[in-house]
Every structure is written in structure tokens, then in C-alpha cells.
# Entry
Amino acid sequence: MWRELAVLGRDARSGGYRRYAWTGADTDCRAWFRAQAEARGLAYELDRNGNQWAWLNMPSARAEGTESADSGTVSVGDAVVTGSHLDSVPDGGAFDGPLGVVSAFAAVDALRARGARFAKPLGIVNFGDEEGARFGLACVGSRLSAGLLTPERARELRDGDGVPLPRAMERAGYDPDSLGADPERLGRVGAFVELHVEQGRALADTAHPVGVASAIWPHGRWRFDFHGEANHAGTTRLDDRRDPMLTYANTVLAARKKARLAGALATFGKVSVEPNGVNAIPSLVRGWLDSRAADEETLASVVAEIERAAAERGARDGVDVRVDRESFTPVVEFAHALRDRVAATLATEGGAGVPLLPTGAGHDAGILSAQVPTAMLYVRNPTGVSHAPAESAEEDDCVAGVTALADVLEELACR
Ligand code: HGY
Ligand code: MN
Ligand code: MN
Ligand code: MN
# Structure
């Protein structure tokens, strides 16, 4: 199962993955998901936002305790759901996302082999466009379903070539008219457990192949537009230039300094330049800031300081700076009751506790946590690298992850 998936959307030169939402690689991954579901006799469903579901035992559309969809509120059903995403960042690793989906199917196989008897519906989900690599907003599928992204705003999203999200969906054979909150489907879910490769080195030097998530740092994306004046690289005196690249470069340095002082993170990982000619001073540099911190106050103040530094430098350079917040995800503290139950299930005999880890990485589990009790398991990553081809996980640790996930699902769905 892993091998079939591992060839899809892989760049032969870098060894990284380019599985962007609604592209051919994404379509191939979706076909793989559906085939895995059908091969196991699971009931396959595509929801209104293009998220894929596979049910071992289907919950009724209106599970016990679910209020009317018209009320707008999601109340908690009793289904236990696991899964993650199959899309990737540019040149992403093999595990971020797919490990959670493959482990979900493998855990269902393990539970069947154990002869588990399910007291509750059990489902597997593949959330669409988690990374936001194409349209700039992360977790589009789960945000739409949770009502945290309006269909109007989703329809305005465009990729780098100007293709609107609805057009991209249509081209991939999906109906963009159906986008919207899905309280009825989410209302079936009583617990969502996402398994994910660890994206740092927190487990790498421990004896633990698996950890449990405690919290997700608040994080967001800000677009910085630096407007200067295009001119000739060979004839414009340095003092006469209004060079936005200079302002941008100083802003990157300031971001690093401010983030370090505050114990936060700040990254400019994407930049575009106009007109992008070797021998012309740019007219516009557009850089995207990704910033994260342990709490929202720190994050807000770091970003404000970076904005201030950009404006001050812009004034010196004759460059006009505009900043737009493109997305923001508040802090997530995973539901304590579910987290503690998961941790207790995984504690070894003799009581060695499983590590509880906070992370700066965003996840669909974080988006859903506002409405559904969610928990996450992390599988050790020996390189600690993620969002790059060197992302890794040992086979034994992946097996330990599947066993842990199966134990947790059994605890939650079979009692
Ligand atoms: O960028 C993130 O934190 C996530 O992996 N989407
Ligand atoms: Mn990721
Ligand atoms: Mn991920
Ligand atoms: Mn010339």
C-alpha cells in the first residue's frame, strides 16, 4: 500500500513530492484512497468540500446527539475517525500527511485481524489541500467543513497562475458549487485522531517511537508587498534607487532578529519579484511571512515588530510597504480528556508515560478541535526534517505507530 502511494507525484530529480490540490498528482492520490477503501469493503464518501471518507460501519446521517444542521452548531456524535492528508508542500517529504492515512488503513487491518468488535462507527478521512501549497491557505478542506472558511472566500482563492479554486476543482472533476460548512457530517464525529510524522527532533533522541500532541502553536501567513521603482541596473546611481529588494532583504534580517528575541519563529519561504530581470531594479517584491509562537500575544507582537521594521526601512529606501494577513490559526490546546485517554492507552506496563509534545506545525486536527474532540499521535523522525525530501521515519517506528493507533481506536470505538 505504501509503495503504490510513494510513486505518486514524486519528482525524480529531487526525490521530493509535488502533490498540490486539484492537480493530476492529487487526483492520483485520491484514486489511491478510494481504491484502498473499496479493497477493504469500506463505504466511500466524498463530502461537499472534496474531503474523502471511508467508513467501516457507517454512522447514520444524524447521529445521536447531533442537532439540526440548520442550527449551525455541531454537536458531537459517536463515530471515531482517523486520517490525515495526502497533498504536499513543494518538494515535500514522503510522510507528512500520507503516514497518517496509510496508518489509518493499516490500523483497520490490524483491528480486523484482532477480531475487534466495534461499538461505534469507525471512519478514515483524507482532508483536501492541507498544506495550502497551491492557493496559499492551509487546511482548506477542514476549514470549509468546520465553517471556519466561507465558501465565498474559498471561491476567491487563486493559484500562482491566477487559476481560481473553483476552476481548479472543476478541471479535476469536482463540483465547486457545493462548498460550505458541513455540520451534519462533522456532527457524526465523536473523536478524531490524526497520526503524523514528527516534524522536529523532540522524539529523535528518546526511547519513544510514538508521542502524543499537547498543543499547536498559533500561526499565520502575512503577505508583504514592497513597491519600489523599476530602473536600469547599469545606469541608476545607488543613491537614486528605490529598490524594494533592499527593503525586503532588511525585513528578512529583522524578522530573524525579532523572532529570536521573542522565542518565536519567522520565515520568509516564498518570494516573487517583478519584473524579475537580472539587469533591472525590481518594481515590486512580494514576500510571504510565516510566523508562529507559543502564544498569540507573542505572535502578534513579533509580527507587529517585523511590520514596523519593514515600514521604517521602506521609508529610508523610498519603498512603499503594504502588509496583508492572509491567514491566522489560533492556539490549539488538544482536549484534555481525550488526550489523557490516548496517553493512558499508550502508557507501557510499569507506567512509563508517553511523551506529550507541543508543535509549531498546523494540522487538520487543530482546525477540527474547535468542534470535535481531537488528538494526535506523532511518529519519531530521526532526521527531524520535514517539508523537505529528507523527512524520514524508520519502518519499525511506523509499525509502532500503527499498533499505537490501533490500540487507541480500539479503546475509543470498541467500548
Ligand atoms: O505548515 C504547516 O504547519 C502544516 O504542515 N500545514
Ligand atoms: Mn505539512
Ligand atoms: Mn501534515
Ligand atoms: Mn539596455
